[in-house]
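Question (not urgent): is this output format expected?
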Amino acid sequence: MDFTFTEDQLAFREAISRFLMTEAPPETLREIWETEDGRSPEMRRKMAEQGLTALSVPEAQGGLGMDDIAWSLLTQELGYYAIADSMADTAYVATGLLTALPEGTGMRDVLLARIVDGDVRIAVGHPVNPLVADVHLADVVLQAHQGEIHALKREHISFERNPSIDSSRRLSRVSFQPSEATRLVGAEHGRAIWDQTLNRGALAVAGQSLGLAQRMLDLSVDYAVQRKQFGKAIGSFQAVKHKLADVAGKIEFAKPVLYRAAHALAHNEPTAGLNVSHAKLACCEAAWVAARHGIQVHGAMGYTWEVDLQMFMKRAWALDSSWGDRAFHTSRVAEAVLADHAPIGPHHSFGDTHA
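Got this back:
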């Protein structure tokens, strides 16, 4: 069994990384986040032109038809460059939800085609998230109600904004009145789709957290090389080296956990929920350690607005509880691991390794 990424997946990641390096530097993000909407339609249009919004839309609707494994790479880039929630929510989470709907479901094909074109913003309201990201600009809100899936236009909802420590986030508490006109599918089919949506949302946060951890490590390493004390770069001090090595170790150990979860989700394996929760815990822990050690390397100035570290640190803190907090995902892991006849052990990891 071959677990390496394909050339297409790696090439797409490299292209997106180069694009974001140019189009989304920290100084540009600061300017965008200080606006009322906190979003740049121009940047979103350019990202759509790069093919990011079409990545996982089925080919029948004009997309590229790539799966969760490709997104395990792309979400790391979105995290590394601190791209706002609405991109992953629309291009990955909402796309997965819409694709899972029965063919012929109202609005399904129309919305998928619009996602490819990049001319629609979709917010996803799952019961695990009391606050929904980017409702203020969403053309459509996909909302759960007792297991049902409802597609709501802006006139169907009311929302109250909620501030976040992360300047990039625009969160709101949504209220709506469900009706037959807004319902896409009933609870019988909807609950299974919402379960998949939860896993995709959590996997997206895991990937972004890993990207954030890498960015904070890179910033800390750069600072440790430039900052001098007693005539030496602080990066030469053993205590600082240990801090940075701890972060690097957390990142490297979290990567295979993330990729394992993406594989399970892409192949609809019965352990997907367990794998996704494990990935979110491991990746968010890497981001927390990167933030904590990054602050210790930078000193108190790391908290200030002028220093880039705080942008990624605050985003890591905010995303930690998104799509299920640590208690939620720890409980899912515990239920699976402590269950009778739990499939634990190396031989269960990928099934038949001789395939």
